[in-house]
């Protein structure tokens, strides 16, 4: 079951999409995200770099 992401996480994902979208639509970009753990964080590997996005929108590598 997919949990919805927070508003802050959505803003952070859109910022990553603008920087690393490589011509993908936003929906295609979102599908590349690796996993989410409840409402704790979501993760993605983009160009061989892991990005974790916290519920408050803080992004770390």
Concise structural overview:
The chain is α+β, with helices and mostly antiparallel strands and 61 residues long. It contains two helices and four strands, in the order ααββββ.
Description:
- The protein has 2 helices and 4 strands, in the order ααββββ.
- With 61 residues, it is α+β, with helices and mostly antiparallel strands.
- The protein has one domain.
- The radius of gyration is 11 Å and the shape is globular.
Proportion in β-strands: 25-35%
Can you give the helix content as a percent range?
A: 25-40%
Number of domains: 1
Mean of residue pLDDT values: 84
Question: Strands across the major sheet, in which order?
Answer: 1-2-3-4
Strands, total number: 4
What layout of secondary structure does this protein have?
Layout: H1 7-20, H2 26-31, E1 33-37, E2 41-46, E3 49-53, E4 59-60
Keywords:
about 60 residues; alpha+beta; four-stranded antiparallel β-sheet; 2 helices; about 35% helix
């Amino acid at each position: 079951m997919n949990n919805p992401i927070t508003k802050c996480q959505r803003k952070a994902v859109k910022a990553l999409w603008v920087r690393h979208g490589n011509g993908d639509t936003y929906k295609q970009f979102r599908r590349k995200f690796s996993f989410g753990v409840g409402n704790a964080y979501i993760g993605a590997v983009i160009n061989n770099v892991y990005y974790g996005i916290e519920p408050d929108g803080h992004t770390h590598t």
